[in-house]
Sequence to fold (293 residues):
Amino acid sequence: ASPSDSRPRRVLSRASLAMSQPPPAFPPKTKTKIGVLALQGSFAEHCAHVRRCGGEPVEVRKAEQLVGCSGLIIPGGESTTMANICRRWNLFEPLRDFAASGGAVWGTCAGLIFLADRIGRGAKQGGQELLGGLDVTVDRNFFGSQIDSFETSMRCAVPDADDGSDTPFRAIFIRAPAILSAGPGVEVLAEYALPEEKRAELRGTDAEGIEKIIVAVKQGGNLLATSFHPEVTSDVRWHKLFLEMSSAAKAYAGVGEDAVRKASESEIALIHPGLLPTFTDSVFAGAAQQGGA
Fold:
């Protein structure tokens, strides 16, 4: 207005000025990243459940894919195969570094074996490398072979997400391991009462007299293990529990120099493709094809 303009001017108060401004733009809430070791087994099913629970799944096949993850799921599969792949791909030290850095880790079935500190029964001849950290002793194939797989309804110490009750969950055991003993710092979340035929099968063995077996545990705030496969059911309670554990953990910053050095020292060189056997319809190439033994 000009100096001669005598019209009254409106003075806005701070409160009025604040109300006239657009609301501040808050960044969207960051989803908790959960890595799923994607070497074999039901990693896709785990990823789907993590997504249903509001987390962000990350398939992990290389050490650098652990960066930014607060949790890691080790799925079922075959524990010795998993160990061999981890050693060949230099994953053991990064995985141990992830756990040592405070990341949450959950092992299901073979993943439970992989996390265990000790194998009491059913160990592979010559032993097998374990990730370790979980103070339990496991029986690799306590429930038998693939044909002995089964499912049952069980109660557990994981509350229902809706009403806080301990409603039964559907537990699917596929050539499953079991926990024979757990250390004092391990919380038992679920036990399975053995049927009479299984107790009869154990008579005369060092497991005679066992009436129930531990099938789910939690250690501290960052380790979880189950003998069964929650990822192949519609029940997401176990994944919600693990997402809560992971949300309280610190996101992984990356592999330290010490872990890189240890990984390189223990590297298993790949076999030269020319030295691998080739197959015909009925025989191996090489000595067998040439009439050798």
